[in-house]
Design brief:
Layout lengths: L3 E4 L9 H10 L5 E6 L11 H7 L7 E6 L4 H10 L3 E4 L7 H10 L3 E6 L17 E5 L15 H14 L4 E5 L7 H7 L3 E4 L1 H4 L6 H14 L2
Parallel strand pairs: 1-8, 2-3, 3-4, 4-5, 5-6, 6-7, 7-8
This protein binds D-xylitol-5-phosphate and zinc ion.
């Protein structure tokens, strides 16, 4: 099956955010990935709920918001009100993961957990009934343009199995270093949503459609 593509606006032109979102939407993006960083949980600062709210009128595609902030709880409602469709949080971003996921669910949107390269997969089991998305980081979070960590591939396969055994409809998203060369490997391992910043936004708006299609078609090369 062909994967869904989630361009990360971390790699967009920050002076033209609305145009960039419309351009990747028209170029075939399945959702828009918004990387929120606080300079504390990760060593970089990006944007907050205000940007999500500002972008909301410019696309009907789901806004896939990746919160790299700690503590996260106080900000969940802001992002939901701003128009996020999926909120994905890191288990390390608060003292009570279960409570944070309850909060997201109570606000009526999809909830996900994001696992850093060294976060044990065992964190998934106690909350698997509460989540709609599992995001496996294939780089350490904080920056775009980093190299894909090959050693994460067996974890993608293991999470894919966990999801299948759960019988639940949970998307398996991968984030970091995804490009036409790495996409077939993650798809073969079971990923079905590919986040890509550099690989989508390189070359500017006239290249977006081909960039997105190249990632999607990588599914056909999956071995
Ligand atoms: C990294 C972010 C990623 C980032 C990926 O912390 O979570 O979403 O935008 O960027 P690329 O695709 O350039 O590796
Ligand atoms: Zn991300």
């Amino acid at each position: 099956m062909l994967p869904q593509i989630a361009p990360s606006i971390l790699a967009a032109d920050y002076a033209r955010f609305a145009d960039e979102v419309r351009a990747v939407d028209e170029a075939g993006a399945d959702m828009i990935h918004v990387d929120v960083m606080d300079g504390h949980f990760v060593p970089n600062i990006t944007f907050g709920a205000g940007l999500v709210k500002a972008l909301r009128p410019h696309t009907k595609k789901p806004l896939d918001v990746h919160l790299m902030i700690s503590p996260v709880d106080a900000f969940i409602e802001d992002f939901v009100k701003a128009g996020a469709d999926i909120l994905t949080i890191h288990p390390e971003a608060g003292p009570h993961l279960h409570r944070s996921l309850q909060t997201i669910a109570a606000l009526g949107i999809k909830a996900g957990i994001a696992l850093n390269p060294a976060t044990p997969l065992s964190v998934i089991e106690p909350v698997i009934e509460m989540i709609d998305n599992i995001m496996l980081m294939t780089v350490n979070p904080g920056f775009g343009g980093q190299s894909f960590i090959e050693g994460q591939l067996p974890r993608i396969a293991a999470v894919s199995q966990m999801i299948e055994q759960s019988g639940r409809k949970i998307t398996l998203e991968v984030d970091g270093g995804i490009a036409a060369d790495t996409a077939p490997k993650v798809i073969a391992a079971g990923a079905n949503v590919l986040v890509a910043g550099t690989a989508v936004f390189r070359g500017g708006p006239t290249a977006y459609q081909a960039n997105i299609e190249a990632l999607r078609q990588a599914g056909l090369k999956a071995v």
